[in-house]
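Look at one such:
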Amino acid sequence: MQATDSYVDISKLYKAYGQGDVRVDVLNGIDVAVERGEMCVLLGPSGSGKSTFLNLLGGLEAADHGSIRVNGTDICQLAGRDLVDYRRRELGFVFQFYNLLPDLTIRENVEVCAHLAQDPLDVDDLLDRLGILAQAKKFPRQVSGGQQQRCAIARALAKRPGLLLCDEPTGALDYETSLDMLGVLEQVNDEFGCTMVIVTHNDAIARMSHRVLRLREGQIVKNEVNESRVHARDLVW
């Protein structure tokens, strides 16, 4: 079923690695749409194609066949500078292991992305809203894992992305910090209205999402709108 206000619209998407006897088909004809402002959780076992899906959506890899329309633009038709501009204009990316620059302060890590945008958010206001303004002058090694992840989210949001991609955003965090971080993502979705795709192995996270996708052997085997969302603070696993 196609979404009525699709921000992401993927059709007949295929991706394989290798050739001949060592060819591995990773994505086998993906058709899916995500509505504007939705929080979408992508679930699946290791090897199901989750990371490849996210990399294609982020313009980090090229599809073999198919289309990926983001805000009306088929990014499979982009190359070179146009693809760089897409990532700069449209995307925020939150990684499992933060990927902060160790020799820059928390504020400077966020400012790096803010400088890429034509109309960035105010960095100090963003740090304040995410609860890490007091850590602004510290280096990543001087703050907790949860605070580093908050910084990574602030960095991704600084340029006002329409699409926020999150790769196992709680994978490196303990249980309590994970719940706290999911609350931050819920806050981000509510306050900033960006469309979100969250890749995770944790089924419990799906309960707070608008849409649940399940990937198995390179195909979407479940695509459901969540009619009974719960708040992040109420999740248990």
Notes: The longest helix spans residues 175-192. The mean pLDDT is 94. Strands lie at 6-17, 24-35, 39-43, 65-70, 73-74, 91-94, 163-167, 195-199, 211-216, 219-225. DSSP finds six helices and ten strands in the chain.
